[in-house]
Amino acid sequence: MSEAVPGPAGERTPVDVAVGVLIERDAAGREGRFLLTSRPEGKVYAGYWEFPGGKLEAGESVEAALARELHEELGVTIDTAQVERWQELVMDYPHARVRLHFCKVFGWSGEFEMREQQAMAWQTLPTEVVPVLPGTVPVLQWLAAEREFAGATHRGD
Ligand SMILES: Nc1nc2c([nH]c(=O)n2[C@H]2C[C@H](O)[C@@H](COP(=O)(O)OP(=O)(O)OP(=O)(O)O)O2)c(=O)[nH]1
C-alpha cells in the first residue's frame, strides 16, 4: 500500500497494516503467553514494543502480508489455517494514519531469529517490557477483557 496521503476532506487514507498476536495455548486450548517484539533502529518509534507485523503490499491479503512480514522479521513460518482475524483499529500518528488488522496466530514453525536486530519477549499481563507502542495498548486491553484480568495492563505511560 502507498503512504498515507491527504484525502478530499483533508483526512488521510489509512495504510493497512497486518499485525500478528502470536499466542501459546495449553493442551486444553487456554491462551497463555503472547509475543511482543521491539521496533528496530531506524524505524519510527524505534525501541517501542509492539506486536510484530507490517504494511500490506498492493493486492496482498492480511494473512499473506502477515506471513511475509513474520517470516522476514522473525524467521518463522506461520500456519495460515491457525490465523484468526480478531480486531481492527485505525490509529492516527503524526507520521501516518494506519488501519491495523490484528490477527491471533496459534500455529507457526521454525526457530525465532531476530532478522532486524529487534528483541522479542513472551509476555503475560501485566506486560513487563517498556515502553509499548500506543497502537499496542488497546490490544493489551482486549486481551485483559478476554482473560478477565483487572488492573494495569502494562508499565509506565
Ligand atoms: N507492527 C505493528 N505496527 C503497529 C502496531 N501498532 C501500531 O500502531 N503500529 C503502527 C506502527 C507503524 O506506523 C505501522 C507499521 O508499520 P511498519 O513501519 O512497522 O511496517 P513495515 O515493516 O512494513 O515498515 P517499512 O517496511 O515501511 O519500514 O503500524 C503493532 O502492534 N504492531
Automatic annotation (TrEMBL):
<protein>
    <recommendedName>
        <fullName>8-oxo-dGTP diphosphatase</fullName>
        <ecNumber>3.6.1.55</ecNumber>
    </recommendedName>
</protein>
<dbReference type="InterPro" id="IPR000086">
    <property type="entry name" value="NUDIX_hydrolase_dom"/>
</dbReference>
<keyword id="KW-0234">DNA repair</keyword>
<dbReference type="Pfam" id="PF00293">
    <property type="entry name" value="NUDIX"/>
</dbReference>
<keyword id="KW-0515">Mutator protein</keyword>
<keyword id="KW-0378">Hydrolase</keyword>
<comment type="similarity">
    <text>Belongs to the Nudix hydrolase family.</text>
</comment>
<dbReference type="InterPro" id="IPR020084">
    <property type="entry name" value="NUDIX_hydrolase_CS"/>
</dbReference>
<keyword id="KW-0479">Metal-binding</keyword>
<keyword id="KW-0235">DNA replication</keyword>
<keyword id="KW-0227">DNA damage</keyword>
<dbReference type="InterPro" id="IPR020476">
    <property type="entry name" value="Nudix_hydrolase"/>
</dbReference>
<keyword id="KW-0460">Magnesium</keyword>
<feature type="domain" description="Nudix hydrolase">
    <location>
        <begin position="14"/>
        <end position="145"/>
    </location>
</feature>
<dbReference type="InterPro" id="IPR047127">
    <property type="entry name" value="MutT-like"/>
</dbReference>
<dbReference type="InterPro" id="IPR015797">
    <property type="entry name" value="NUDIX_hydrolase-like_dom_sf"/>
</dbReference>
